[in-house]
Design a protein that fits this description.
By secondary structure, the protein is of the alpha+beta class. A hairpin with a 3-residue loop joins strand 14 (about 730) and strand 15.
């Protein structure tokens, strides 16, 4: 007689095995939800907020509860319930990037659980016993795809409504399949509640609701139709479809003014782009590992085509589940394509409602093959592979591998560690690293201000200058002109002159792709014509344009600063965001001696007999210096003799000035940009002002510090290469000029 196995391992696993046997479906569902949530929480706050997320933050923090409640019934509010829920969450958890995105991550994980419930209903409708472990495992392919899909993960790590919309679409699919299977009154009520709630989440849920209504018409589950309910439902579906198309056209038309990633596309191109985004998210993986984009999309394309064929066949045979999945996938896409025939602007987020059905479509060939494959005992006895399951199974595994590749690909993958969203955090930090209180700071386009208000107090303890926005560029009147660029120039020039008057430097934070929606860039022909009109001397220094303008009318002041009677002084380029700097040789629109900027502390020092220092000005942001903030200082130069080479200037902050500096700034004047940034071009006596900013460590103790200045040949920072300084003031080691003392507060 066999004795029971009482080994420690067996005893330890017994509760787990018993839980699996008794609650296999619940266990699988919890595991899928946990996997989905873990993936969605990974690096959730790592990426900067982008423009649309900044708009979400502004909406939920700038509006009161009464206004958000009123939006529930406003025809102009596209997704009011999301903002209402997010406002409640922000009141509890704060408004960090992580907190703003967490509701989307949670909704995305819940959508995976809802997809699993829908797959269970599908399996039950296909004849698998309810409650069986086979049904639990057979229902995993679709939710596993949804859990790992880059498209769904992108929405789940975005402080926007679309992950919640994805949950609504998944719940609608589950409720529809359950109602078709059971025909119970409570299940029809659940379907109705989900549909109504979805409309308040996003008006685009109408696309999925119309698809569900069409599925009910085609799969009519009721035994009788005495009152013409089927035809009334069809009429409702058609009316809803017309409303959905109109709403989509309106949404695209309104949001396209913000330039939030729209692509010009017609109906056919829109269908292809929808598939490309579903399979590969933003499609940036093309060319990685030497593989074209189509090669990466091939596994998903194969499963999509096979799934459509199988669904069409089963739908033709009257399979209600197949009809439901086909309608939930195809109808929203076709309605969106109809909208694209009216407004040719594609945005992948608008077809989110079709994504859960697409995941079920990809998994459909696996379920079909599993039903046709031989049983395990017969397969083993015959020593032959289960060929009906091998091909779709291989394609399915390839889709999962592609999902991982898309997420981890260098530079563009959401999980690669690279910046893939607009880097507003870094761009505003770069502005904070440069800013002086008297700078003219420009935000462009004007509607990016929420990102400034969000990040400016987070990247520095210093109060930054109040930015200027040129709203006139967004009025759109010039678009009706024959030469819109010149119209824009005339319209905004007076506003710019008023804002810039008296300033010596201007900084601009620009999002080029968004700015072009209100400030159209010049064409290549226009740029070439402008270049040909330059004096011959300038044409020799500036290469002829070889590509269209990127920045528009306002950006031309920075892009071609030397042609605009300003000095370029550097900038930074980030994903979707750029910082640009231009310095005025004299105070803008001022004349005479008063127009030449003068130092607050005059000095007379000469470095190496060539570089003369006229003095300096220290202008703390907010009136005082703070640990973790910046020390803004302007150096005023004039060449004593023609400089023989280019030089770099260093500023050191110290207490014990024989020890390494506690903070420093080593840069060429105006970041080395031609012409003023290259000392070899300086003329004797010509005044020049050089704005700099020293980063003060956050751990810097409050107190008084000494500020030193020195000069060395560009590219050679060795101590022995430093230029000797001649000055009536204090000099340390013959090469370091003591500018003075500065106080750092608490």
């Amino acid at each position: 007689m066999n004795q029971p196995d009482h080994t420690p391992a067996r005893l330890a696993l017994a509760p787990v095995l018993r839980l699996w046997r008794q609650h296999s479906q619940a266990v699988v569902g919890v595991l899928l939800f946990a996997l989905a949530l873990a993936l969605r929480l990974y690096r959730l706050g790592a990426q900067s907020l982008w423009l649309d997320e900044g708009g979400t933050w502004a909406e939920v923090t700038g509006k009161g509860w009464a206004a958000l409640l009123a939006d529930l019934f406003s025809p102009n509010a596209a997704y009011p319930l999301y903002h209402l829920l997010l406002k409640g969450w922000v009141a509890l958890a704060g408004d960090s990037e992580w907190a703003l995105r967490f509701p989307s991550a949670l909704a995305g994980a819940a959508a995976v659980a809802a997809s699993y419930l829908a797959a269970l209903e599908l399996g039950a409708m296909q004849g698998r016993p309810r409650g069986s472990r086979l049904l639990a495992l057979g229902a995993t392919p679709a939710p596993l795809l949804l859990a790992t899909a880059p498209f769904a993960l992108w929405q789940a790590q975005d402080a926007k409504v679309y992950s919640l919309l994805l949950l609504c679409a998944a719940l609608l699919g589950w409720a529809l399949l359950r109602a078709l299977r059971s025909a119970a009154a409570r299940d029809w009520l659940v379907l109705l509640v989900v549909a109504l709630a979805s409309i308040f989440v996003h008006r685009l849920a109408l696309l999925a609701i119309c698809a569900a209504m069409l599925a009910l018409v085609l799969a009519w589950p009721f035994p009788r139709d005495r009152l013409g309910g089927r035809w009334m439902l069809l009429a409702g579906a058609l009316l809803g479809a017309a409303a959905a198309v109109f709403g989509t056209v309106r949404a695209v038309g309104v949001e396209s003014r913000g330039g939030s990633g729209h692509i010009p596309a017609g109906p056919l191109a829109g269908l292809w782009l929808s598939f490309a985004h579903f399979a590969l998210d933003r499609g940036d993986i093309g060319g990685w590992l030497g593989l074209p984009l189509l090669a990466w999309a091939l596994p998903a394309l194969a499963l999509t085509l096979v799934g459509l064929v199988l669904l069409a066949r089963d739908s033709w045979r009257g399979d209600r589940a197949a009809i439901a999945i086909t309608c939930l996938f195809a109808a929203p896409l076709l309605l969106f394509a109809a909208a694209l025939s009216l407004v040719r602007l594609f945005e992948s987020r608008y077809v989110t409602v079709a994504f859960p059905a697409w995941a079920m479509l990809l998994a459909y060939p696996l379920g079909y093959a599993a039903r046709r494959a031989p049983g395990r005992a017969a397969a083993v006895a015959a020593l032959r592979p289960r060929l009906p399951l091998l091909l779709p199974g291989s394609a399915y595994a390839a889709v999962l591998l592609v999902n991982a590749a898309v997420l981890l690909q260098p530079e563009h993958g959401l999980f690669s560690g690279a910046p893939v969203k607009e880097q507003w955090r870094d761009g505003i930090a770069a502005i904070a690293a440069r800013a002086h209180p008297d700078d003219l700071l420009i935000l462009h386009p004007y509607y990016v201000e929420p990102l400034w208000r969000y990040y400016a107090p987070r990247v520095t303890p210093d109060p930054l200058p109040q930015p200027v926005r040129f709203n006139v560029l967004g009025q759109g009147d010039c678009m009706r002109q024959r030469v819109p660029v010149e119209c824009y120039r005339r319209e905004y020039e007076k506003d710019f002159d008023a804002a810039a008057r008296g300033h010596t430097r201007m900084l601009m934070l620009i999002a080029p792709e968004h700015a072009r929606t209100i400030d159209p860039p010049k064409t290549l022909a226009e740029l070439r014509a402008a270049w040909e009109q330059l004096p011959a001397e300038q044409r020799q220094r500036v290469d002829p344009p070889s590509r269209p303008d990127k920045y528009g009318v306002l950006g031309l002041r920075f892009q071609y600063a030397s042609n605009q009677r300003t000095w370029p002084c550097g900038g930074d380029v980030f994903v979707g965001v750029e910082v640009m700097c231009a310095s005025f040789p004299s105070r803008y629109q001022q004349k005479g001696a008063a127009a030449i900027p003068q130092p607050a502390v005059p000095l007379d020092a000469v470095f190496g007999g060539e570089i003369g220092l006229r003095g300096y000005s220290i202008t703390p942001l907010g009136g005082r210096l703070r640990p973790g903030g910046r020390l803004p200082i302007t150096l005023f130069w004039a060449a004593a003799t023609p400089p023989t080479r280019d030089y770099t200037m260093f500023l050191h902050l110290c207490r014990d000035c024989d020890a390494p500096p506690l903070a420093q700034d080593d840069r060429r004047p105006l970041d080395g940009y031609y012409p003023a940034g290259q000392t070899s071009t300086w003329h004797v006596g010509d005044p020049l002002h050089d704005e700099r900013s020293i980063a003060l460590p956050a751990a810097l103790p409050p107190g008084r510090y000494t500020l030193l200045l020195g000069v060395y040949p560009a590219g050679n920072p060795a101590e022995e290469a430093r230029l000797p300084v001649r000055s009536a003031g204090q000099v340390i080691g013959g090469t370091r000029l003591v500018l003075g003392q500065v106080d750092v507060g608490e």
